[in-house]
Design a protein that fits this description.
The structure holds 2 protein chains of 2 kinds.
Chain A: H1 2-27, H2 35-53, H3 56-80, H4 85-108, E1 123-124, H5 134-138, E2 140-141, H6 143-161, H7 163-173, H8 175-180, H9 185-212, H10 223-233, H11 238-260, H12 268-285
Antiparallel strand pairs in A: 1-2
Chain B: E1 3-14, E2 17-28, E3 32-36, H1 43-50, E4 58-63, E5 66-68, H2 73-78, E6 81-84, H3 96-101, H4 111-124, H5 140-153, E7 158-162, H6 170-185, E8 189-194, H7 197-203, E9 206-211, E10 214-220, H8 226-234, E11 254-264, E12 270-280, E13 284-288, H9 295-303, E14 310-315, E15 318-319, H10 325-331, E16 333-336, H11 340-343, H12 351-355, E17 366-367, E18 370-371, H13 373-386, H14 403-417, E19 421-425, H15 433-448, E20 452-457, H16 460-466, E21 469-474, E22 477-482, H17 489-496
Parallel strand pairs in B: 3-8, 3-9, 6-7, 7-8, 13-20, 13-21, 16-19, 19-20
Antiparallel strand pairs in B: 1-2, 1-4, 4-5, 9-10, 11-12, 11-14, 14-15, 17-18, 21-22
Helix pairs in contact in B: 4-5, 14-15
The chains are: A mainly alpha, B alpha/beta.
Chain lengths: 302, 504
């Protein structure tokens, strides 16, 4: 039970990084449909960096660079040149998959035994981790999960209490008002995409450098899209996103738990499919949306 | 008086069109300067240059005597220049405060402090606005106040207002005029862009008149009158708005009869409430009101786009309430919607194609199973001639025409579709005087042909000039039906704002 909940928190970490970053880009009016590709680039770049240098820190830096590179291309094409966001995102996702697979072979050949790096370890926080029940769940985690605890309140603060947060929210609702106020709409949107690239890069590398310690081209397996959906389900609000990320993390953890259990009646695949089923049900049943009014619409000046 | 802005020989070209040619005038401290001209005369362009949205191709701008380059609205704001555009740029989902401080406070936002400051500003000019209201809940008049506060919040000294009265009720216009006068008393200046002579005469100290991108007059208010201004503005003698004096006979037979009609919007809120009216043969029935009070829904209910929740609509005593749009077109209802680009035409198609858009099911356009191109073209050519549409022929793209000519295309089509009844929703909005004149003439002509006309308009002069009876609409209800002699503009204004007579 405690194990499963701790795993749930860990599994929700990359989803939250991705979904929060998606929330910020969508609040500014752009859908980051290259999110799946950015996750994969992060997983790939992170592994390469860490394997070659032997340092996880360098690995994560590589991951950030890889993610940002992809969303930068995405931003230039969709924001500056105003191309269709879904089409561009799809193209970049396919490109990322091909690129990661290809470059991995170029760099490492086809290894006989899978190449591994030592994953990011958990750090038990003295005292706090000794609290019964709560301790092992919350305070025996890896660094990135600890950072996650702060991301949601920080996001809330930035979005609702700062001038730049107001600009971000306004950009997604009515970019013209932002333009008139003397703020460059496209710059706001591209900035959001670049930050999203960094977050997605870390999220992707979380799979290769924290959960598994290895890289395969199927490592992300649609989790970028889940983060994308969480943003939507969380109604573009930080705490909604947190709730969504935790729910999906829990579903994944239960899936993992049942996978290793003997004599299970319910097939493991059911739990893997659970988040996706949940997405569809929630999407259909919910009727109040906080969707940014100009989401997906490029800004044309006059 | 001190000159705060001097525009010197400004010219601006868009592709092949001259928007401004050699325009020069000054703005003084403490002055209301009216910029008068027809649509497309270049009034907005010259002000957008001053506001930094465009950049002039020739000429220079002097601020307080010094030559200045203004590249963006941000630059303009540095010099205390703000412009309130015709289309407001407000974030509907946000509060008044959030809209006003957008981009103008740094770092952390102290909401209370901002709200208090805005409340103070709002009270100073008697705006009576709650800073915590969400924009989407505000009326157009209140939204305009938010735009004004946005400018005041940045310590604007020169306020440019582009057609600020177009969307207001008469009472709101009075309040706006009062604000403008208060504002300039403190040594500020206002540029008031308008094509309405009476307003310009009321509020301005000096009047600059523009025509076809050029300056054609710069006069003191005290030295001119409306007639002189009109002649300068149009450059030709105007035909008077055709009035009922061009006699047409209203017969006693009802073309349209609506009884207790109720419609709801997507959220189930009543947009038309228990509305009853009749339009007789040969009658022009006017609907006056502030836009957004159910006018569009009323027209949609008649044309069949919107379903009735309750009530009955008959056309020449036949119930049409459950007929489809297509069946209603066949029954002889023509409809000129207010948003022509969205509801009435396809910009990428030719005039001829647009002409038969709504009657494509009729056999008259067919040669065998195919479109009879020749017939359609000769029909369109006739229409182009009859309605003096400026286009090179039936194959011209509808989207390439000017607004006035697009409206004539739609009118030409709907006059034929509406063999019994023509519904016109704001048919002259955004048109220049020549085109307006043409639309008015067509309306009177069709009513003389014995058709029933339902004319929705926010221009009271149009309603008073053309209509036999006037219904005032407010929040989906008719405030009453009057003959024009029973009403004064003041009374209509009150009715439009929701006041209701106790006993009639």
């Amino acid at each position: 039970m405690i194990d499963t909940l701790a795993t749930a928190l860990m599994m929700s970490t990359p989803l939250l990084y991705g979904a929060i970053s998606e929330m910020f880009t969508e609040r500014s009016g752009v859908m980051n449909t290259s999110i799946e590709g950015a996750f994969l680039m992060g997983a790939f770049g992170g592994f390469v960096g860490a394997y070659i240098s032997g340092s996880l820190l360098i690995g994560f830096i590589f991951a950030i660079i890889s993610g940002v590179l992809l969303t930068f291309i995405y931003g230039i094409v969709t924001v500056k040149y105003k191309q269709h966001q879904v089409v561009t995102g799809t193209a970049l996702n396919i490109l990322a998959l091909g690129l990661a697979t290809f470059l991995f072979r170029v760099i490492f050949g086809i290894p006989v035994i899978p190449l591994k790096v030592t994953p990011l370890q958990t750090i038990a926080i003295p005292l706090l981790s000794k609290i019964p029940f709560v301790g092992p769940i919350f305070f025996d985690q890896n660094l990135l999960t600890y950072i996650m605890y702060f991301i949601v309140p920080a996001s809330f603060y930035v979005l609702y209490k700062t001038s730049y947060g107001l600009i971000i929210r306004s950009t997604g609702e009515n970019p013209e008002a932002v333009d008139v106020a003397g703020v460059d709409v496209n710059r706001v949107r591209i900035t959001m995409l670049l930050i999203a690239g960094a977050f997605c890069g870390i999220a992707g590398a979380f799979y290769s450098l924290t959960i598994l310690g290895l890289f395969t081209s199927s490592i992300i397996g649609g989790r970028g899209w889940i983060a994308f959906a969480i943003c939507f389900l969380g109604n573009w609000r930080p705490y909604g996103v947190l709730f969504g990320a935790l729910a999906f993390g829990l579903a994944e953890a239960i899936g993992i738990r049942f996978m290793v259990m003997e004599g299970m009646v319910i097939p493991n695949e059911f739990f893997i499919a659970l988040p996706y089923i949940l997405t569809i049900i929630l999407t259909i049943t919910r009727n109040s949306f906080n969707i940014p009014a100009k989401l997906g619409v490029p800004y044309n000046k006059e | 008086m001190k000159k705060v802005i001097e525009l010197k020989n400004i010219s601006k070209y868009f592709a092949k069109v001259i928007a401004n040619k050699d325009v020069s005038f000054d703005l003084h401290e403490g002055e209301v300067l009216a910029l008068l001209g027809e649509n497309g005369a270049g009034k907005s362009t010259i002000m957008k240059i001053l506001y930094g949205l465009y950049h002039q191709d020739e000429g220079k701008i002097l601020i307080n005597g010094e030559e200045t380059r203004i590249d963006s609205p941000k630059d303009a704001m540095k010099y205390g220049i703000s412009m309130i555009q015709q289309h407001f740029s407000l974030v509907e989902a946000h509060t008044v405060t959030e809209n006003i401080i957008l981009g103008h406070v740094k770092g952390n936002i102290d909401v209370n402090e901002c709200t208090n400051k805005i409340k103070e500003l709002s009270d100073k000019y008697g705006f009576n606005l709650n800073p915590n209201s969400i924009i989407r809940d505000l009326s157009v008049g209140e939204r305009q106040k938010v735009e004004i506060l946005k400018a005041l919040f940045q310590n604007t000294e020169i306020l440019i207002m582009d057609e600020p009265t177009a969307v207001l009720t008469p009472q709101e216009i009075t309040n706006l005029m009062k604000f403008i006068k208060d504002f300039v008393k403190g040594g500020n200046s206002v540029v008031f862009i308008s094509h309405k002579l009476n307003e310009v005469m009321e509020v301005a100290d000096n009047i600059v008149i523009m025509r076809n991108g050029e300056l054609v007059g710069n006069v003191k208010k005290t030295e001119t009158d409306e007639k002189k201004l009109a002649n300068l503005m149009v450059g030709r003698e105007l035909n008077q708005t055709p009035t009922k004096s061009i006699s047409h006979v209203v017969e006693n037979e009802n073309v349209l009869d609506m009884t207790n009609v109720t419609c709801v919007d997507r959220d189930g809120i009543k947009v038309l409430n228990n509305l009853s009216l009749t339009v007789r043969k040969g009658e022009i029935f006017g609907i006056a009101g502030v836009s957004g009070n159910g006018q569009q829904e009323l027209c949609e209910a008649i044309s069949g786009v919107r379903e009735l929740v309750d009530g009955k609509i008959t056309l020449l005593n036949e119930d049409i309430g459950s007929l489809s749009v297509y069946e209603r077109i066949k029954a002889g209802i023509g409809y000129v919607p207010s948003n022509r680009h969205r509801d009435a035409m396809i910009s990428d198609m030719t005039i001829a194609e647009n002409m038969f858009l709504k009657s494509s099911f009729e056999n008259k356009w067919l040669a065998g199973k195919l479109i009879d191109k020749e017939k359609l073209n000769s029909y369109t050519n006739n229409k182009i001639r009859d309605f003096s549409i400026k286009a090179h022929g039936p194959d011209a793209k509808a989207g390439g025409l000017s607004g006035g000519n697009q409206q004539k295309v739609i009118l030409a089509r709907e006059v034929d579709n509406g063999s019994k009844l023509i519904v016109l929703d704001q048919p002259t909005r955004g048109l220049d005087l020549g085109a307006i004149n043409h639309v008015h003439k067509s309306i009177v002509r069709e009513s003389k042909n014995g058709k029933g006309i339902l004319l929705v308009s926010t221009e009271l002069s149009e309603i008073f000039g053309l209509c036999d009876r006037i219904g005032v609409i407010y929040q989906g209800e008719l405030q009453g039906i009057y003959s024009p002699d029973e009403l004064t503009p003041e009374k209509v204004g009150l009715l439009m704002a929701g006041w209701k007579e106790e006993v009639r």
